[in-house]
Amino acid sequence: MRFGTRSLEEQECAAAAHWYGENACKMQGIPCRETARAHVRALCSEDGALCGVFCWGPAARAQEAWDAWEEEPETLDISACLRPDLTGHGWGYRAMRTAMRWLQGKTGARVFRVAVPASDARAQQVWRRLDFEPAAAHGSWLLMRLDATPWKDATRPLQEGMAVYPGDPPFSRRLFQRQAEDGWNASAIALSCHTGTHIDAPAHVGLAGTVEDIAPERLNGMVQLLDWDGQRWNNICAGRLLLRLHEKSLTPADARRLLALGVEWLGVDALTLDRGETSWETHRILLRAGVVVLENAAIEKGFEEGWYHMRCLPLLLPGSDGAPVRLLLRRETKR
User: Fold this and answer.
1) Is this structure's pTM higher than 0.70?
2) What sections of the sequence does the record tag as coiled-coil (predicted)?
3) Which of 138, 223, 330, 331 could form an SS bridge with 310, CB 3.0 to 4.6 Å?
């Protein structure tokens, strides 16, 4: 079944309100009362038959479910239900996906909340498949939340002429097959494992441990971004730390202090975190302690200080001392 959306007709209101009380969502509000009609829409089949309803804003809130939760700035509360005879047949995901696409396009909202009965595992699964995550529980209700704030790329583009560490080979890309002669284009690239935005493995300084030994969960999660002046030690409160060095360098003493503060993942915007140091002692201290080191993040512009969701995805190069990564950041939304 394919779903669409349309306006909810006046004569359909009673049925829709009845479904809100009977179907799996069990929301208690009456979404089509006159004061809320502007924020209610029908889910329909290809022939226009009413299959469900969804609503947003205050109209979406069942009082018994929402009393425990405060409003969040720039967050849209939603609710939805299907016609009772359609529930339990696997249509929930398609229907709610249709509703979410319409809401995202129409309202421009990026953060959404929905209250789901805590006992309704099927409804929770539908919303999880739409990337909603459990946020809070109250009585018989579970509040689920979606943050659809766009990800921003903090990766250096790999291109000819880009800056590389002194002595490293330059990046190059060449076509070895061409559309005109071969029927398609195919490129080959040449680069150091430490070109662009990259991680260092312990093997980079002669220690045991290569790229595949770094668990993915250590590379992804929340990260704190700070402008670094060498003095802001009291501002560090995260295990994952991303520093804008502003052409400064980290010293061995800095590395030891970062370890004492519990830093386990350290990223910088410079080609290297210990610029000008020939002994690589800062690297050794951090890598020996198991800290993941990332260098050359593209965070000079477009990223404010604060907390970010991070996706750090290195190439899987077994046995390698480092690997280029794709670094994505998404600003934590205020609650």
Assistant:
1) yes
2) none
3) 223
